[in-house]
Specification:
Length: 200
């Protein structure tokens, strides 16, 4: 049986870091952020809808979506964020389900859904187990500002656009505390996989 693991956390809590650990164990990962980029490429149906809603000012000169600009608009405005989500999420979900079902036919011991909004979008019924990557607020803010070279204000706006990480940790089947080193987080991941009888 293939166990479907829903991997989540908050922005910059370490989801990609942990999803790379899964990949290194030969467990496939389906990345919602990556798919959310693919479904808004100019030839895709979501693209036209975004341009109609947000105008051509959210485009680069070559016609591609200017993610920095669109991000500035939606992370500071709940209504606009909801409108963008309503365009992008159904397309992402369709592809995630399709890929999940493909990997299930390939008899992998597990497949990972790496999805930042697993709880916010009520998608837990799509997975067998939920795993949250946790960091404290200070570490999160510091790592986010460092990684994206962003201001404190931008970083806080992004963090506040999601459910709190404490709330997510309470709802999860398992939590990786990623405040320490990457190696320490890897040790925690291996223990969780053993507990869930996932043999890789
Ligand atoms: C607004 C956009 C263009 C900004 O792009 P950008 O390249 O700067 O960021 P990226 O997509 O890499 O997202 C970075 C992180 O921001 C957070 N985030 C992204 N979208 C959202 C959202 N709608 N609500 C809350 N948090 C979000 C996630 O933690 C994500 O990991 C982009 O995030 C987007 O299209 N978002 C809507 C789709 C979405 O919800 N994606 C998340 C998973 S499906
Ligand atoms: N244990 C760790 N120690 C030090 N730095 C870390 C650790 N885990 C992650 N990082 C760094 O913190 C930043 C955020 O991590 P990562 O990109 O994995 O988060 P994420 O949850 O995938 O973010 P996003 O939601 O934006 O996709 C990265 O620069 C990463 O290299």
């Amino acid at each position: 049986m293939t166990v479907v693991v829903g991997l989540t956390g908050s922005i910059a809590s370490g989801k990609s870091t942990v999803s790379n650990m899964f990949r290194n164990l030969n467990i496939p990962v389906i990345d919602a952020d990556q798919l959310s980029r693919e479904v808004v490429e100019p030839e895709q149906p979501a693209y036209e809808k975004i341009v109609r809603l947000f105008g051509e000012e959210v485009l680069h000169d070559d016609g591609a979506i200017n993610r920095k600009k669109l991000g500035k608009i939606i992370f500071g405005n709940k209504e606009k964020r909801k409108a963008l989500n309503e365009i992008v999420h159904p397309e992402v979900r369709k592809e995630m389900v399709h890929r999940r079902d493909f990997y299930k036919t390939q008899q992998y011991p597990a497949v990972v859904w790496d999805i930042p909004l697993l709880f916010e979008s009520n998608l837990t019924s799509y997975v067998d187990r939920t795993l949250v990557v946790y960091v404290d607020e200070e570490t999160q803010l510091k790592r986010l500002m460092e990684r994206d070279q962003s201001s404190r204000e931008d970083a806080e706006q992004r963090i506040n656009s999601q459910m709190s990480l404490n709330e997510k940790a309470e709802m999860a089947d398992a939590v990786i505390d990623n405040n320490g080193t990457v190696d320490e987080s890897f040790e925690q991941l291996k223990s969780i996989l053993a507990k869930w009888n996932i043999v890789y």
